[in-house]
Amino acid sequence: TPEPRLDDCERMGTLFGMLNKCLRGLGFSHMLFGDKIVEPVVVLFFWLLLWFLGIQALGLVATLCIIIIYIQK
Question: Which residues cross the membrane (predicted)?
């Protein structure tokens, strides 16, 4: 039997799930990054990092995220 689909709130936690659900309702779609799905709330978070902290901080955080993803495999 197929596993039941989890709601965004259950899968990502309450705050991020609600933000993601609102963004999806406004028409934002998820993006594909290799074999991973990047949700709209994550894309918005990276744009806010870029706006507040600049390109160096965004590059550092993105590099750390990529390293963590590949270490967990």
Answer: 41-71
**Highest averaged pLDDT of the listed ranges 7-16, 21-30, 62-71:** 21-30
Q: How far apart are CA 50 and CA 55, in angstroms?
A: 6
Q: Would you kindly state where each structural domain of the chain is located, as residue ranges?
A: 8-71
CA proximity to 31, closest of 21, 44, 22 = 44
Using one digit for the tens of pLDDT, what is the confidence trace for 24-58?
889 988 888 778 788 888 888 888 878 888 888 87
Measured CA to CA, the distance from residue 59 to residue 47 in angstroms comes to 12
Q: H helices within the chain, ranges in order?
A: 8-12, 14-25, 40-53, 55-71
Tell me the backbone φ, ψ of residue 36, rounded to 5 degrees.
-100, 150
